[in-house]
Amino acid sequence: MTAVPLPPAHLLTVGEYATLGEDDAGRSELMEGNLVMSPSPSPDHNMAALRIALQLMPQLPQDLEVITDVDIDLELVPPDQPGFSRRPDVIAVRRSARRRVRTEGGLIRASEVLVVVEIVSPGSRRTDNVVKRAEYADAGIPHYWIVDLQEPVSLLACHLTEKFGYLDAEVVAGIFAGTEPFAVQLDLEDLQ
């Protein structure tokens, strides 16, 4: 039997959260300094994330790359305050971000991310569609794509506006084709 780790005795900054490391943090995220644990995604969820990443990779401009299942600092509060960190399923990020993390440490910053992709799970529907949507918009991430694996597999592409947070495009099934922030086509049926 594995013991559940005790939560920290105080609210965490993003820097403190980053020092927990992969083994201690597990499938966790940081919300206003609180460590939030969630179960590992299902095999279908993980396979969909992998297939999205594999489809995106050859379509990205040279200055971008795809990373899966990595913590990002939403940069919603000063570094010394209880922070916010999310672990999206897939991100398209500037190549310089991973180099910066390698040399400086810390997490990938929201300001380095162009697209966040979240795959809806049975227990994350409200979180992905409401909570994370608001947090990613507040963090200034330009594009948020929500993938729903329920038949038919669909994608809701949201782009950030200056005044109103994210604006939704039409929900798409079959082939998703976009032009912003780069030209892309995703075969959503391949995600099943």
Automatic annotation (TrEMBL):
Pfam families: Uma2 (PF05685)
InterPro entries: Nuclease_put_TT1808 (IPR012296), Restrct_endonuc-II-like (IPR011335), Uma2 (IPR008538)
Keyword NAD: no
Record's keyword annotation contains Hydrolase: yes
One MF annotation (Gene Ontology) recorded for this entry: endonuclease activity
Keywords, in A-Z order: Endonuclease, Hydrolase, Nuclease
Annotated Putative restriction endonuclease domain residues: 16-152
Name of the protein described by the UniProt record: Uma2 family endonuclease
Organism (species): Kribbella speibonae
Lineage, broadest ranks: Bacteria, Bacillati, Actinomycetota, Actinomycetes, Propionibacteriales
